């Protein structure tokens, strides 16, 4: 039986991307070393949840923070609160914002918020886009990095200019910081320095941090207090969130210091993709975080066949998931993590030589 | 320093109610014995979540089931779906329904559903209440047992009559079965027999079952398929729910056979409360599940002082939480579980003798 790309990736000797398998061992590694006498959080109260919220609030430089089971829940609530404050139903965000394409329109269906889409979907939101926004926008959401276009970032100065513009016009600025930690090495800023430009911030614990699940929403005291009411309304105020919290806390301490390494890995790996393989290129050309997209000028099925052959001959697994980009093109997302440093460089080089070769053969 | 009631309960030699402490050990006990190689569920897919959903659907006698992080989320969604089907915004439920008093009005704020409150808050919904409902009700929610009035149940025949009435009028019937397992011994029915009267059913895994958190919503294929879309909208479609699922699965197998025991414990303990202690009585007088309420004709603070003294002198902890019932009265909820059989009967008897004595002294 022919392997699927995902099977070939999962059984490759050296999967290149990610931290490791998403399996029960992740949880066991956290809890094997924890004292069983630690009390559960109870409906958002208790030391386990309160200490973690305080820790992350301090890290983000915000007065207060609330742990949520998901970013989907946290961000809809953030936008709802800013809309309530302004007495408006309008928010602005990128056309490929998570809320627009991955949440089954929860923002519209549950909160009746009308998003205004800024910029083209193939590029970042600019200061000019923001200046041209219609009146009555309660909140502008910026995602750093902009994941769906390969993880791109505006210059920090442009971000500061956007923040100043919004502040002067009473437009709240919310940060989708699902990958905030991952961009700090490139910006050369602390999380608090970046977050100081924003009124509210969401961060995730299962991307670069590699936890099981969970999110934090941070902002002012009144904002987070109100967010807890909405968390209850959404059904996110679980009796016990500690399985996620204690794991996130441990993963945060373990992986935060490695963000520079993940970023450097991405730059190095993107260099290998951009070494003259016909029709293959990365976006951005030089990554600004631990992620980038690989784009190919040939169809998904062709790319998959080539990749499977490369994995099987070299033991190097580059991705488990190629997507159709339309017009006979394809692409995939790459996020670097704990696995990359363990890949023998000569094996990796060999894999890219073979990729080069096979793409050339296919193009003939 | 004087102990609070909760402290006195938590440090009592023999806490009488519940299964045990809600601490990290609950999770460790589940995962210590599980293989680390078990793959995480991914956004609602994967063996871990699908197998459990299939298992519980079969147990409830429904075609399909979906795991949710919380009952709050599951039930709002169930009612929303039935409202969509009918093209109505009206549902009917008890005045002390969980959705009415414990969810910060999520049903109204997120779904704009208008509940019609049936019956007085001090009694069960009857067939007559149902017959007197206004037109246009999309769904009637019944909670079995009715928790906030001590866990009372209608006769099964009345339930059947209500179901028949609703079916004949295209009113959907939804079961808040947070404590469904706990009532099966009294009804002498299987879960599937009870659920056959309902179009949709929610069950919980952290009450009688004693799991960490989580819920199942069960019903027809199309209903549960639609519920997954709303689960994503609510922010409940987490990348990984396995910490709850694997624990719930184990707790379900372990505790389901003990529901008869928990029920018998409640009947026995209620008998001790109803042994002539002045101003103290249980509701219902004879429990029909593992739960009941203890009502006292004196204020919360008085009751707390008496209870703390009883715990300290006898080592028996009866409750950690007394609530104000208004008009100088007070009450608390009792749920029996794994702890009860281990209590030495003579110590328990001694505690009730002392309770009797101290209440008498206070009344003077």
Automatic annotation (TrEMBL), chains A, B:
Keywords: Pyridoxal phosphate. Residues 38-270 form the Aromatic amino acid beta-eliminating lyase/threonine aldolase domain. Pfam families: Beta_elim_lyase. It comes from the Bacteria. Gene3D superfamilies: Aspartate Aminotransferase, domain 1 (3.90.1150.10), Type I PLP-dependent aspartate aminotransferase-like (Major domain) (3.40.640.10). Its cofactor is pyridoxal 5'-phosphate. The keyword Phosphoprotein does not apply. The keyword Iron does not apply. Belongs to the threonine aldolase family. This is Aromatic amino acid beta-eliminating lyase/threonine aldolase domain-containing protein. It comes from Paenibacillus glycanilyticus.
């Amino acid at each position: 039986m022919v392997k699927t790309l995902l099977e070939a990736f999962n059984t490759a000797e050296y999967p290149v991307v990610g931290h490791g398998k998403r399996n029960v061992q992740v949880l066991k590694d956290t809890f094997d070393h924890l004292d069983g006498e630690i009390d559960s959080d109870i409906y958002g109260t208790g030391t386990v949840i309160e200490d973690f919220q305080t820790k992350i609030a301090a890290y983000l430089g915000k007065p207060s923070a609330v742990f949520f089971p998901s970013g989907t829940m946290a961000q809809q609530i953030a936008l709802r609160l800013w809309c309530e404050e302004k007495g408006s139903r309008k928010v602005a965000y990128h056309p490929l914002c998570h809320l627009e394409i991955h949440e089954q329109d929860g923002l519209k269906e549950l909160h009746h918020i009308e998003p205004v889409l800024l910029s083209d979907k193939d590029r970042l939101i600019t200061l000019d886009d923001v200046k041209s926004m219609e009146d009555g926008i309660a909140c502008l959401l910026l995602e750093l990095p902009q994941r769906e276009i390969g993880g791109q970032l505006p210059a920090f100065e442009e971000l500061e200019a956007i923040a100043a513009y919004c502040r002067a016009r009473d437009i709240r600025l919310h940060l989708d910081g699902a990958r905030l930690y991952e961009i700090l090495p490139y910006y050369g800023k602390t999380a608090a320095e970046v977050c100081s430009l924003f009124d509210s911030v969401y961060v995730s614990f299962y991307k670069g941090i590699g936890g099981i699940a969970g999110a934090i929403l941070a902002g002012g005291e009144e904002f987070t207090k109100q967010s807890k009411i909405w968390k209850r309304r959404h059904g996110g105020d679980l009796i016990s969130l500690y399985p996620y919290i204690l794991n996130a806390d441990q993963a945060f301490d373990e992986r935060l210091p490695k963000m520079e390494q993940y970023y450097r890995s991405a730059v190095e790996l993107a260099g290998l993709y951009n070494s003259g393989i016909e029709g293959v290129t990365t976006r951005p050309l030089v990554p600004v975080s631990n992620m980038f997209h690989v784009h190919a000028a040939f169809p998904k099925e062709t790319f998959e066949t080539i990749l499977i052959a490369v994995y099987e001959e070299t033991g190097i697994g580059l991705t488990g998931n190629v997507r159709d980009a339309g017009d006979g093109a394809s692409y995939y997302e790459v996020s670097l993590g704990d696995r990359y440093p363990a890949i023998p460089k000569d094996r990796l080089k060999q894999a890219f030589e073979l990729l080069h070769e096979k793409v050339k053969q296919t193009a003939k």
